[in-house]
Design a protein that fits this description.
heterotrimer; A alpha+beta (about 800); B alpha+beta (about 290); C alpha+beta (about 160); A: about 800 residues; alpha+beta; Aldehyde Oxidoreductase, domain 4; Aldehyde Oxidoreductase, domain 3; 5-stranded mixed sheet; 20 helices; B: about 290 residues; Uridine Diphospho-n-acetylenolpyruvylglucosamine Reductase, domain 2; Uridine Diphospho-n-acetylenolpyruvylglucosamine Reductase, domain 3; Enolase-like, domain 1; 5-stranded antiparallel sheet
Amino acid sequence: MSEAGKAKMGQPMNRLEDPKLVTGNGCYVDDIKRDGMLHLDFLRSPYAHADILSIDTDAALALPGVVAIYTGADLADKLGPVPSFSVPGNFFNTPDMHMLALDKVRFVGEMVVAVVASDRYIARDARELIKVNYKPLPAVTDIEKALLDDAPLVHESMGSNRAFMIPIGDAEGAAKALEGADVVVKERLINQRVIPNPMETRGVVAEYSPWDNELTAWISTQAPQNLRRDFAKFLDHPDAKLRVIAPDVGGGFGPKGAVYPDELMTVYVARELARPVKWIEERQESMMATTHARGQVYDVEMGVNRDGSIQGLRIHMLAHMGAHYGANTPVTAMVTAACITGAYKIPHAVLNAESVFTHTTCIDAYRGFGRTESSYLIERMVNRLAQEIDMDPVELRHKNFIQPDEFPYITPMNNTYDDGHYEVSMSRALEMADYDALREQQRVFRAKGRYVGIGVSSHVWRASFRMPDTHGTDNWCIGGWEKSTVTVSDNGGVTVTIGTCSMGQGIATATAQVVADVLSIDTDNIKIVEKDTFAAPFGNGSMGSRSMVTGGSATLLAAKKARAKILRLAAHLLDSVDDELELKDGCVLVVGQPEKSVSLFDIARLSLRGQEEQPLNEEPTIEESAVYEIPKFAPEFATHTAAWGTHLCLVEVQPATGKIDILRYIAVDDVGRAINPKICAGQIHGGVAQGLGQALMEEAVYDDDGQLLTSSFLDYCTPKATDMPWLEVDFTETPNPTNALGVRGVGESGTCGASPVLVNAVVDALSPLGVTHIDMPLKPEKVWKAIQQAQGDVQEASRHSQKTPRDSQQAQPRPQQEQHA
Amino acid sequence: MIPSQFDYIAAQSVEQATRLLEQTQGAKILAGGMSLLPAVKARLNEPGLLIDIGKLDELVGVSTGWLGRLKIGAMSTHVSLIDHPDLTAQPIFSDAARVIADVQVRNRGTIGGSLSYADPAADWPAVFLALEGEVLLRSHKKKRKVKAEDFFISMMTSAVASNELLTEVAFSLDSKRAGNAYIKHRQPASGLALAGAAVNLVVDKKQRIEKINMGVSGVNAMPFLARSLSEKLQGGVLPSEDALQKLCAQVDECDPLEDLHGGADYRRALLANAASRSITLAYQRATAA
Amino acid sequence: MNISLTINGEPVTADVEPRLLLAHFLRDHRRLTGTHVGCDTSQCGACTIHFNGKAIKSCTMLAVQADGGEVCTIEQLAQGRLLNPLQQAFQDEHGLQCGFCTPGMVMTIAELESRGEPMTDAEIREALEGNRCRCTGYQNIVKAARKVIPEPVGYRGEASA
């Protein structure tokens, strides 16, 4: 319970969501039980590429308790291809994906048969009895092998596994710049495929009421309104009669924003059978069926002059698409390009993005989407350059930062950064770290033969987004707007209806704080309505750190409108039209005459009386809406609002085992305005954990036959409590002038900073051995091998005569590593 | 993860458990279930009957006898062997029990179950070998003892026959000038051993190693005794750190598994690190005694 | 098979299949949905409950194995509508975000608390190896645990570094 008047923006108040969740009284989709509910289970392809010759479901159908079985053939005339990314009339090819595979499977985990039974145990038994006759075909999972002439094709109709190739930026300028630069560093970087793995897998409970043709689906999703739009079209169901509800969601992180065939299938079956149907993803299933992330390989050339000024950047990028498109798959390249030059004034840059199909799970959004990839590349390369020209990496950054008076800044990729004050977060991080003392400490340790390194990352990313026109899955338009409605009801209770989607980020609390602050009321009598398309029909869900930027801003504007009406009604009640009024603790007072006051209860009651009792020009009811839309900065693919931070870490590498100890980790991120600092810090903790997870241990590995070797937590390693260092977190709050709330988004800053800072630190630690790069994940074995090789090379080099500096560069030991691309 | 169907009985006695094992095709003993149940859930193992021995209190506990004889009931949980008052002279038990999986698994998993399951990356097998233990196996009509060195047959296969129940693990342990230790490098995802070294040694009055045994987990397809290393260390004092490291890097019996968590060279390197630290710790404990 | 056990202080009898997992028995049959299932391989700990006073993973136990025993789930901890001190600590320290791993985390830490022994932060982290979280980075969970688990005398924890 909060004290009256205590809930203000900027306060680290306790979350309103917590009592329910911490007592086990949350309601996640698997907690929902409906009368007569059936269970759905999917038989999925064990092959990465195969023809389906026949399917025998007789034994399964005969099992008592089995109600229905569906195959691709059953659905062929009834349902069209699964909605996936498309832009009308553009060059993104979108090969169709059937809801259940028809004659071919293209990745391990693709759905082949759906079984419906009276309980989940029987459904599982039935699955075991289905016989699918496959003819395995050659598969390709390596991105470079997929581009070879003899590579097996994922989509025959395309004639190639290359989905598309686009140049972004200025190729000629970049080429000239590199030619003219004093030093050019070439590096190949791998941003490995990872599996987001929220703790709650996906799931659906769907039920159909035939008499009113109403279809209800509870789905563990980040975007209920978007799903309603797509499901209605796909299922040919009137969308006014389709209700999508996201109950409590156990983590989203991006993958739960997509449109999935298994979710669609569950809703379809509920309507077909007119029985409630539940489908809950198992973890192994999730690792194959829920979208993967990252999966890019870059060949990078970056030119710098000896004085530290960066001259140019040229990147050839290969990006995994997977076997088919998800909701956002093809735009990865563009989103990566948007911040690829980072915080730096790089006059010329070009990114050639080649997007490639392979027989793997599709790649889609995951915390940081595109910006984590770009941060990793640019922050790694800046450190690489610093090492090459023997300049402190902090100094190199200072030399090249875009200065505050240079915004709005148009990058060579033609993206506009609206704002940036990089020195502010950088100097705070250096102060917290006592950077000079840290470097001195490093010198001391190095003299004792210890491998201690300091990593820096000064990542720039962009929060929220606005897409032009129609884009995305079929008619899914990710608008850069949100609508919020603030309602004051009968007894002065306040309801806030928003279109974003809580999945652990604390939106309900932050939203309540905004309204409580503006209306000067307690959060006890505020209800947040979200995630139910009947109650909150307009919205674009939560992803890309957009919720407070757009939704929060809309709420602020709506709350202000409500406040204005409250004051007008109060003035009428107090007969004080010309007096100065203030809102305090749920009452409206005349300033200086506190005895002249009226409560929100009385004001609410007035608002419910007839028209003739209202003040002039007012209508009954207090229900104020506002839409906030991100301004369109520039004619580019998607506009965003800028955010940035500086992370710093100190590591020690154990040469005997390759293990990395993180001795200190400092994170300073600019969030514009921290509505709730405790929640903001939590977002940084979680983002850093996922970033460190990728940097240190996570990797989705396919073998040459397309089998996913990492399909359980026995093999896919996410960070545990013992893997995480203590995080020293601080914020700078440079107000964002481009949105009403002044916020910058915080959810994805952690992932953007953590992976480059960790790799930078480890490379710094091993730089005395001549190590210049090691690809993620920095598993102990990989680091150990790099050290072994480097130590061997050092011994080798010391036995030979001196080389020129240029020769030494060429002979830099390149650690042997598995190139998982 | 849903198991296939099976029958279940909670055994009321060892006699009943072994009789059912003998008489029922496809019967399996269910101890703590920490290894068996995940396999059953994944349908990698589809028993016809699970005989739950969880209620057999007679199989729980530690007893000490004459001349350092120690008996541990098969159903003793891992957690019960951490800081057990009767095991204070044998710190290897706490060393190993502490690093098995996690708190929840340690609360249910048993030493008997772990040994029977014979996972090469489990921890008790290496300790069992290093301490030259012996198990008591009971079938319906017979009982027999099997020594540690004869217990592990092949990957995931122990000497426990399909009609036998492992009821206790016994050790004859020196207490004078003896020391033991277990150090393990974990596979980060599963927590099982990538390389673990269980060491038991005895020194003489001049602190020379009189006897040393090292059991290794995680490296090979089976846990094994590093006899070659024992031979090299026997008779001398603890070598210098560098020398010891070199010796531990050359364990002849190594025939490492390779998977995405560790190649052969890396497992050898981890073993070298774990072994030298474990030997050093065991030696310190022995010379302090 | 008939089983009789105590769940959150109440005697319960039921007729269940031998293969029914305890987690499913609690969630689907007893409608105690606070205990969650997050993985297939007994690692994530979202299903952690207490059985006979000890934290165990209910996904790796059969309901029939619980016959005659005492089960305590997350639902038992709150005192009426008041959070118990550990749960309050979770809220105060922002030790939960999506809440899915939270009941399991709380149950494991509750067992550590019941031992009454001092623990360092590193020991707390080690004790949480069987509980995965994807949201919080664990820092605030450790801070919450810290509030109910005593520190060793003279110990300076992570937060004071």
